[in-house]
């Protein structure tokens, strides 16, 4: 009897021991499941289509609206200069006085010759009239009449000749007063009083420039021009008539010129050496802030993009080949890497040309803690009401 009782107690002890260790292992498993690390959190924004105005900054230079090089049209000694260098002159204002004496003498001589010719004309006209009457009565021959009539016609021609000579001499005399052909600012004088000026000399006496308004000429590459035309044809860009012709301007120091200009024309010829066409804009310049030859940057309006997607520049990185990359969270909470094409910078954002769609969740914070393929918890950016993808359930939650 006693020998049978011992095995029974040993069997019970073994069963209790096995049950204890089974419960202990189960409890440890549940505790391990409950203490699994949470999913990493990332802050995201939702890519949305929005309407933006696209502009392009193009380098250019200013040029005078009107420019006139003042040259003498007759030769002579400059007697006096009638303007102050760097001042404003009006059209028709006298700039230089060339010695008029020889031209006055030529005019007086032509006028005297004209008076002589005119004095002879009445007598020859009367004689021709008398011979016409005598010819009708047969008192003179046809030859005699023809000689008298010819002399009268020669006298008429001589009067006309000297009238033209007088007019020519008057014009040349007027050219001794060199006047401003346009209104504008006149530069330095290239000749002084006492110098000999020659007609149509290669070096101008002075140069007058009008720069209110003023031109701004900027080159645009044919590549950009073709890209712009394609986007307009595809409906990506909308052109808004007169607004499209408005042009802004940045000065050499980076400041903004206060007045808008107007796009006047686009050249139709491509410069073969640079592959560009010239755009010309005209700007009001009432305070003469802009001077001819200044370097500026013209802000040209391309059009309205009604489906633009903008993302912060900080969300974009580059691979070794220079491709633009960004991280997004898909609908399952998985991090995906997207290769995108960037059109241009707009402030602190990139305008995305391709690679992202409206509704994509772009990681803006926490990108350094994750890698493509990881499960994450997407949290909308502060202040945003963007819908976020539902994160995958954690193992502990699945166990519960």
UniProtKB/TrEMBL annotation:
Tell me where it resides: Cell envelope
Domain named Multidrug resistance protein MdtA-like beta-barrel: residues: 213-303
Coiled-coil ranges per UniProt: 107-134
Q: Where is the composition biased (Low complexity)?
A: 389-400
GO MF terms held by the record? transmembrane transporter activity
Per the record, which residues fall in region Disordered?
A: 379-400
Matching entries from InterPro entries are given as:
MdtA-like_b-barrel, MdtA-like_BSH, MdtA-like_C, MdtA-like_HH, RND_pump_MFP
Gene3D superfamilies on file: 2.40.30.170, 2.40.420.20, 2.40.50.100, Helix hairpin bin
Supply the SUPFAM superfamilies for this chain. Answer: HlyD-like secretion proteins
One biological-process term from Gene Ontology? Answer: response to antibiotic
Q: Cite the Multidrug resistance protein MdtA-like C-terminal permuted SH3 domain residue spans from the record.
A: 307-367
Provide the Multidrug resistance protein MdtA-like barrel-sandwich hybrid domain boundaries: 67-209
UniProt domain Multidrug resistance protein MdtA-like alpha-helical hairpin: residue ranges = 107-176
Keyword Transferase among record annotations: no
**What is the protein name given in its UniProt record?**
Multidrug efflux system
Species the sequence originates in? anaerobic digester metagenome
């Amino acid at each position: 009897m006693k020998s049978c009782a011992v095995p029974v107690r040993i069997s019970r002890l073994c069963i209790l021991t096995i049950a204890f260790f089974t419960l202990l292992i189960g409890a440890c498993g549940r505790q391990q499941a409950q203490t699994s690390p949470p999913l990493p959190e990332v802050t995201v924004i939702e890519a949305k289509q929005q309407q933006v105005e696209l502009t392009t900054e193009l380098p250019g230079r200013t040029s005078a609206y009107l420019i006139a090089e003042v040259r003498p049209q007759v030769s002579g000694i400059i007697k006096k200069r009638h303007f102050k260098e760097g001042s404003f002159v009006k059209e028709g204002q006298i700039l230089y006085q060339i010695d008029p004496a020889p031209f006055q003498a030529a005019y007086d001589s032509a006028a005297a010759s004209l008076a002589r010719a005119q004095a002879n004309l009445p007598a020859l006209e009367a004689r021709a009239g008398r011979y016409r009457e005598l010819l009708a009565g047969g008192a003179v021959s046809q030859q005699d009449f023809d000689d008298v009539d010819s002399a009268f016609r020669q006298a008429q021609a001589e009067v006309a000749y000297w009238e033209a000579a007088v007019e020519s001499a008057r014009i040349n005399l007027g050219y001794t007063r060199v006047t401003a052909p346009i209104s504008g600012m006149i530069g330095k004088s290239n000749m002084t009083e006492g110098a000999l000026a020659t007609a149509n000399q290669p070096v101008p006496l002075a140069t007058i420039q009008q720069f209110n308004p003023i031109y701004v000429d900027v080159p645009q590459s044919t590549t950009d021009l073709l890209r712009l035309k394609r986007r307009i044809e595809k409906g990506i860009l909308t052109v808004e008539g007169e607004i499209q012709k408005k042009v802004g301007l940045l000065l050499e120091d980076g400041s903004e010129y206060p007045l808008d200009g107007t796009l006047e024309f686009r050249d139709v010829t491509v410069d073969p050496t640079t592959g560009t066409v010239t755009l010309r804009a005209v700007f009001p310049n009432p305070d003469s802030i802009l001077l001819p030859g200044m370097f500026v940057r013209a802000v040209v309006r391309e059009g309205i993009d009604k489906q633009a997607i903008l993302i912060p520049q900080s969300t974009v990185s580059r691979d070794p080949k220079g491709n633009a990359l960004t991280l997004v969270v898909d609908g399952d909470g998985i991090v995906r890497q997207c290769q995108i094409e960037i059109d241009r910078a707009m402030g602190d954002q990139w305008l995305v040309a391709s690679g992202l769609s409206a509704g994509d969740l772009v990681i803006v914070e926490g990108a350094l803690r994750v890698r493509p393929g990881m499960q994450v918890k997407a949290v909308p950016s502060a202040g945003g009401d963007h819908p976020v993808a539902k994160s995958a359930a954690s193992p502990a939650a699945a166990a519960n």
